[in-house]
Specification:
Blueprint lengths: L16 H7 L6 E4 L3 E5 L9 E5 L11 H21 L4 E5 L13 E6 L18 H16 L1
Antiparallel strand pairs: 1-2, 2-3, 3-5, 4-5
Length: 150
Amino acid sequence: MGDSPPTGGNAGAPGCAFCGVVAGEAPAHRVLDDGTAVAFLDTRPLFPGHVLVVPRRHAETLTDLAEDELGPFFSRVRDTARAVEEALQATGTFVAANNRVSQSVPHFHVHVVPRNRKDGLRGFFWPRTRYADEAEAKNVAARIHAALRG
């Protein structure tokens, strides 16, 4: 699709770079554009074919997406991952999203990056750690479980 215009507008956030792409006011190499999401090539890709998938409606974080938007949006992410693998003959994809921290554009977006073994990308981009002991792990799990129950 290249730089084709979007299929429909949606009121975005003033000054949001991704809302500009969604509205067709900013250039982008779109690979998907429908009433739910817009997907386009990242301008600073990890590898060629690195795609960003954004919801058409401005939502700053994952938790700002409405319940009824989640399924359709992540269906687009899944479809994009499948297409990236097929189009680039990639063995797999790295699918990730930042939520506030390290989120360079405050419009929720999911990265879909083509991957192949020994491509030079090493797992996550930050150092991994361990829990001090089983008690610490249980405490953290209990706190998250309690927060999920509301």
